[in-house]
Every structure is written in structure tokens, then in C-alpha cells.
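>> received
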Amino acid sequence: MTPNYEKQLRFLIEKFPPLPHHFVDVDGGPEAVIEAYNKGESIPVYTGDSENSIWGSPEANWLLRAHHDSIHLKYGIPFTPTGEYIAAEVSSALAQYLRMDELALALRADIAGFSAYQAENSVFAPQEFAKELVATITRTSLTEVGEKQMREGPRELDNPGI
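>> returned
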């Protein structure tokens, strides 16, 4: 079973907030997000297909989308398959900065995995795809993370309880 990353995701977003945004029921794609940003308006965040995500509640999934699109816009990262991988790495680096290694792995798997699926199949992946992908990657990679922590010793976190 894939863990629920909502608490960690919300902490990440609290520390690195997205651009001003609002929620919409119709997906206008990256074009609508870019257009709003270029006009100095809040960016639209699509609320659909947010049930049963690895992020917990639908609202947490929406916040991830706002955070993710903000990374594209703030850093001029294109909304392309390669741009998705780069944006995934930025999010993952922020999570690692906060010492949330498992969240970093989940962000990479979810964002880059969805992008790869869409590039290959020309449709968005179902949420179950992300759950399976994240579970597999985090299980394998966490063994390596755990081994590294055993070698380096415990770390003092400035985000206890997460």
C-alpha cells in the first residue's frame, strides 16, 4: 500500500508556497496557466481526477498542482516532457532540503511518471498508475536511503513529527 504523503506535502507547500491560484472544474491545460501568469492573474488549478491520489485528500492534490505549475512559471521551465522531469527535480530538491527523502522520491515518481505515461500514451494516467509506481520506487529506493542514514547517523530535523 502506498503511504499517504499529505502531511509532508502540506509542510513543503507551507515552506515553499505556490503562486496565487484559484481552483477550476475545467482543465484549460498549460496554455490557460501561462496566459493567466503572463497577465499577472492568479493561475487556474484543475480540480478533476484528484480522488484516490497518493497525496491524500483531493485538496492536497490540488495544492501539489498549484505548487508544480508555480515551479514551471517561476523558473521558466517549459510544460514539456523534459520540463516535467526538471520541475519534478526542483520539487524533489525542495523536499530533500527539508529532509523529507521519501516525499522527494514520491514527487519524482508521481510527476515524472505521469509525464512519461502521457508522452507514451497521449492520455493522462489513472491515479492507480501513480500509486503503483510510487510504491515500487519508494520501496526500492528507501532501502538505499535507510542505508545512507545508518552510515551517516540520525539527523536533527527542524520539522519534528513529519
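>> Helices lie at 6-15, 29-38, 58-74, 81-97, 101-121, 127-152.
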